[in-house]
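Hey,
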Amino acid sequence: MSEQPKNFGFGEDETMLRDSASKFFADNCSPDKIHAQVAHNPDIHRPIECIWDKNLWQQVVELGWTAVCVPESAGGVGMPLVAAAAIAEEVGKAAFPSPLLSTYYATFVLNACGTDAANKALTDIVTGTPTTLAITNEKGSWSSSDTDVSIKDGKLNGTAWFVQDAKKCDRFIVSAKGEQGIGLYQVEANAAGVEITADGIIDLTRDQAHIEFNNVEAVALAAEGDGDKALDEAMPAILTIISADMVGAGEWLLQTTVEYAKTRIQFDHPLGFFQAVKHPLVNVMLDIDRAKSLVYNAACSIDCGFDDAELNARMAKSQASEMAVFASSRAVQYHGGIGFTWECYIHLFFKRQMHNQVIYGDGKHQRTILADMVIGQAA
């Protein structure tokens, strides 16, 4: 096994990429802009909407962010996962509405497929085809064997549930059961027999849907019996990127709450003067630091091909999920009455965190799997 590189392999190129992402979001995605974009209608009975700026997405593609984790053989940049984690962290810090992270998840699965069709799909991602995974069943399980979609004679039938950014994406990667096992298939969003039904979710910065497939023609990305292997191989990277998004959102919540605590006067003192406020905020900072360290450790272990990559990724998702809940609750509480209002930007990040922490398993779920992994290794 090779030795872990310094700073998790986060070098000069990765630093430049992170800094450019930070500047991009500062210029284009300030909290007031995002709030005006996605939270313009506070009516609880408002129609389900998918709101995002396609012009900004095109700029993201031109910046090469979709190509970061695509190998050079498929026209990508072939950077390490720590680079994508840095972008995901900035995405979370800005609560950026886009299909970028979902496209990253699809990229990891396509990388694991290793077929000509998958390589072609990777090339399309580089040029800006937003892609998402349709692998979850009605009960919420994303285990590769639990899909509700089947394939016969090259046609898909069934329903994929809890599909992230479904209305933003032009292409789906679908897991389906065949006679020989689970396969992965490429389906165009506008293909005949595809019906997309939007779900109502709390996160205003993303959309979700369930997708029905009725005799839909599909392109095989991984043959029957190989799809589950590709999904399992990609899952550590997926968990790592979700966790990085939560770290970024947590950092925004902490910084915003600290600034409020410095300026809000209560009993002739700034709110942050009181121990009941400043001590829990220090605990939030420590939780974020723990999650961030675990995220980059997981990304590095995946980049280096370490045997404990999945273990590290699940540790990162567990810690990030717990941090997301804690940081969000403290931010709302310490903003007082204004923190519960629609006009306060806190709710955008709170809701994004609540959505993130359950995607592909919350902290409790990850710890259950971790316990099985560690106890099994010990036995």
